[in-house]
Amino acid sequence: MRFILGTPPKGGSPAIKCYPLGLDYADIHLKGSILGTLALMPIGYLWWSLFWPLKELNYGFSNGPLYFFSLMAITLISHELCHVIAFPGMGLGSSTCIGFDPKSAVPYASYLGIVSRNRFLLAVANPLIALTVAPFFFALIYPAFAKHFVWISIINLMGAAGDMFIFIKVLQKVPKTWFIQ
């Protein structure tokens, strides 16, 4: 695994035919940021408010900005690691990159090798499952920690908006039997 400051490098020439995604990541991050902030954050907050009192939901705000921004940083790092562990070899090989693009202020996880369409979809959806859906169920099992789980879930839901765009685009355009690089 490598850490890169800047945009992800391009993979080498594959030995088999792969689908060229050709995604405009700057556009996806812009649309994802808008969708995440204006739509998904309020939806996530409303969803949690159906099951938990406002005191629990507002804990992230009432505990001060250091708590909230620390939780954001932890969620952001965990989000990228969730992508990585869905890559072949749990992301431990040299084809895995975690990086940060200062130009767009966006962290990313990238796999330079070839993966099946379904493996790619799993890697894209993994943070949404692990950090948005799972915390809700953990809160039901461990209600004392719900005040922490709620904001991990909502922050990740906001940050996963770009992943949702990618997921939908791959579902629409890439045939089931193809590979992605």
Explained architecture:
- It is a single chain.
- By secondary structure, this protein is α/β, with parallel strands linked by helices.
- Helices cover 59% and strands 12% of the residues.
- It has 7 helices and 6 strands.
- The chain has helices at residues 25-49, 54-57, 59-62, 65-85, 117-141, 146-159, 161-173; strands at 2-5, 18-19, 96-101, 106-111, 115-116, 179-180.
- The strands form 2 sheets. The chain has a 3-stranded mixed sheet, covered by helices on one side. Strands 2-6-5 form a 3-stranded mixed sheet.
- Strand 3 and strand 4 (106-111) form a beta hairpin.
- Helix 4 crosses helix 6.
- The protein is elongated.
- The chain starts with a strand and ends with a strand.
- The mean pLDDT is 86.
Layout of secondary structure:
Blueprint: E1 2-5, E2 18-19, H1 25-49, H2 54-57, H3 59-62, H4 65-85, E3 96-101, E4 106-111, E5 115-116, H5 117-141, H6 146-159, H7 161-173, E6 179-180
Parallel strand pairs: 1-3, 2-6
Antiparallel strand pairs: 3-4, 5-6
Helix pairs in contact: 1-6, 1-7, 4-5, 4-6, 5-6, 5-7
